Amino acid sequence: RRPRCALGVAGLERPPLSAGRAGRTALGADSSARLPPSPPAGEPLQRERQAGEECGLARQVSAEVEKWVRVNRRPRKRKRRETEEVFAKLLPDQLLLLLEHLLEQTTLNPRTLQRLERTYHLPEQDAEVDRRLFKVRHRWCELVVKHKYKKAYGHVERFLQEDQAMGIYLYGELMVNEDARQQQLARKCFELSKEQMDRSSAEVVAEMLF
């Protein structure tokens, strides 16, 4: 069902096309009651179409999130006849939204994280091609840190060395978990990259680490 467009000014209805000259005259009699200029032809439909497409993309992400939640809940030993989840190919913005939803999950087991990594090739997302993919890598590293997915700690180390600016937030997350291995990783990465960091960023990170 299409949303109704707001036509005319408050309290006025656009006269029906069948009203013809009489309808136009009735409106024209009161100079203060003027309709706003009509938008360019096709503009409302274009906006409506764009909004519909965005809603469709968001619904697709919601469906994918539900699939991942189901995968995460499954026991290690599954029944043979159980249907395997098939995941859709996502656009960068959709992938980012998916990871943000998954960050809200209390627990993701290592098998789920491994499959997530392989399905979307998360460590290989090239920020030089699309800057949004940099945010995708950042969200992936957040998932790795939150759920202590040790197999992907190398991805976190690479991220911290390649982008010192956004890495500041990740340093904080590594330290707040109070996990000895994560804190060791944070200090190691800082020692390797502090010379390339600007002074203010280096000072902020140093205060968190030491």
Automatic annotation (TrEMBL):
Gene Ontology terms for molecular function: metalloaminopeptidase activity; zinc ion binding
Name by which UniProt lists this protein: Aminopeptidase O (putative)
BP-aspect Gene Ontology terms: proteolysis
Cofactor: Zn(2+)
Highest taxon of the lineage: Eukaryota
SMART domains membership: Leuk-A4-hydro_C (SM01263)
Keyword Protease (UniProt): yes
